[in-house]
Amino acid sequence: MKFIVGLGNPGNKYQHTRHNIGFKVVDQIANNQEWKSSKGKLEYLWLEMGGEKVELVKPQAFMNKSGLVLTYVKKKHPQLTGENLFVIHDDLDLEVGKFKLQFGKGPKQHNGLTSIYQHLGTDQFWHVRVGIDGRQGDRTIPSDKYVLSSFSPEEKLLVSQSINQAIEELNQHLT
What we know:
The protein has helices at residues 21-30, 66-76, 111-120, 143-146, 153-174; strands at 2-6, 36-38, 42-49, 52-59, 85-95, 99-103, 126-133. By secondary structure, the chain is an alpha/beta fold. It has one domain: Peptidyl-tRNA hydrolase (Rossmann fold, 3-Layer(aba) Sandwich). A 7-stranded mixed beta sheet has the order 2-3-4-1-5-7-6. Helix 1 (21-30) crosses helix 5 and helix 2 runs parallel beside helix 3 (111-120). The longest helix is centred in the last third of the chain and has 22 residues, at 153-174. The mean pLDDT is 92.
């Protein structure tokens, strides 16, 4: 059994922001299936992916509290290990349109991941790093504001392509 967690912020206000790319990926994997709610802490659904039983998870806490939700998932599923946990998140260290699937390696700074590292006591799990940086060298917008901005129309095509590629690589990794 595998667990795929898409990071983001709950609510319509954040739905189309760069920070919610993890939600976008798991929503696309879910392919319009209905999400279930677990005591308001998370949304989840079960499916088969790459011949493997998978639980998709969308934390319903804000990004910097993601670790609390993963603690809840770990308590509910004691068999959860880093080898079967995939966390999909935005990454300002990567350009829009790029992604990386890496074990134990995330961006330099990410409050959602920091929360997960603290609550799980490890960074040793699969990181699906989806690039969101489209600033092209212009760092005048602070990172905490930039991650809450929307993608430009030009970037949306690159984002769609990187999401498709990330899902394809996840599928191959699960088989």
